[in-house]
């Protein structure tokens, strides 16, 4: 049986809706993150804003920080050696799938930095003792390591934090002002069987980022394509058992075709694709840097042309600027606080005057600091 064909315009609108960007729903910050499993989080201010823009109207950055303070949200090196914001339950689930692979890829770095197994063990012992009394700053933990003769010069302190996170010792948690503190990893969130977790996360990824491919998911997780493709095949067209937890994302997955590429969507998205709302342009959407709507896919061609991507990532340092989308298509970047005399946005050539005016209004209305 052939797959339904979707136009790129409809596919982009479905992505905006799946991502929780258009329209904004009534979810709390914790519900947003639980639904999406994890959001790119190496830039802390950006991920706080990414959660806020997907949360119910009126949500502030302080509301998002409060979820971290309550222990309902955390930040850890869950995949690809990169920081993500997630929940404690999904931190454990993701780490059960990805941590060993990241450890293997970091062995050369550990050797080059002189971080032997003995050094890491001593660092872990100091960290466990320090964190037994509560959260500490990275600077405090680094000072304690120095006092115990653990090398922290250069980038060694940062690498030790990330290595101990991979080992399940610690993660980023509550805030002291705008600074995020380190806490001991919780022991009350054991993951399920890896194959079950991978299937659950596959459903969640498609439900919150589709249309997308299995290879997009494999890249996002930093896992080999073969087991990810198998997990997707296992759940394609299958309903979630009635006994499954809510976090299993009870969406039935289907294949569609977008410009000759087979992609995955949920049954709900498939119904939306044939409804009147799929015909309505979404207008201007602003997102912070490193946002999942841009960065959450291996193949970004549906959303961004090469020219548009060069505005968002103008250098080779991997820094993704805040993005402007028009009906789900990336058309440039924007700034929250431009210098005097500078435009608050930079758009690709060919954007109509009325759309530029809409971008200007959207930037002026931005409410997330």
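^ structure tokens above, recovered residues below v
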């Amino acid at each position: 049986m052939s797959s339904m064909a979707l136009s790129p315009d409809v596919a982009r609108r479905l992505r905006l809706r799946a991502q929780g960007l258009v329209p904004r729903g009534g979810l709390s910050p914790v519900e947003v993150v639980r639904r999406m499993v994890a959001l790119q989080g190496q830039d802390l201010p950006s991920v706080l804003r990414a959660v806020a823009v997907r949360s119910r109207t009126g949500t502030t950055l302080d509301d998002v920080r409060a979820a971290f303070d309550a222990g309902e949200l955390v930040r850890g090196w869950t995949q690809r050696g990169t920081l993500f914001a997630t929940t404690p339950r999904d931190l454990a689930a993701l780490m059960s799938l990805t941590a060993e692979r990241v450890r293997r890829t970091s062995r050369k770095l550990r050797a080059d930095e002189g971080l032997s197994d003995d050094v890491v063990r001593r660092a872990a012992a100091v960290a466990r003792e320090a964190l037994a009394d509560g959260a500490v700053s990275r600077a405090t933990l680094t000072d304690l390591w120095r006092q115990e003769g653990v090398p922290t010069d250069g980038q060694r302190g940062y690498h030790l934090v990330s290595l101990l996170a991979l080992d399940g010792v610690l993660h980023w948690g509550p805030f002291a002002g705008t600074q995020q503190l380190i806490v001991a990893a919780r022991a009350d969130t054991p993951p399920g069987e890896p194959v079950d977790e991978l299937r659950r996360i596959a459903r969640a990824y498609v439900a919150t980022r589709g249309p997308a491919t299995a290879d997009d998911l494999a890249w996002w997780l930093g896992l080999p394509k073969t087991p990810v493709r198998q997990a997707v095949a296992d759940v394609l067209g299958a309903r979630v058992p009635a006994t499954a937890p809510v976090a299993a994302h009870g969406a039935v997955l289907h294949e569609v075709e977008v410009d000759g590429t087979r992609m995955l969507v949920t049954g709900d998205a498939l119904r939306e694709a044939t409804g009147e709302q799929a015909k309505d342009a979404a207008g201007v959407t602003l997102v912070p840097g490193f946002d999942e709507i841009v960065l959450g896919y291996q193949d970004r061609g549906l959303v961004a042309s090469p020219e548009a991507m060069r505005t968002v990532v103008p250098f080779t340092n991997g820094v993704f600027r805040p993005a402007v989308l028009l009906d789900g298509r990336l058309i440039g970047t924007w700034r929250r606080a431009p210098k005097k005399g500078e435009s608050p946005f930079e758009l690709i050539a060919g954007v109509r005057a009325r759309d530029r005016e809409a971008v200007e209004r959207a930037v002026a209305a931005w409410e997330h600091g």
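The chain has 16 helices and twelve strands.
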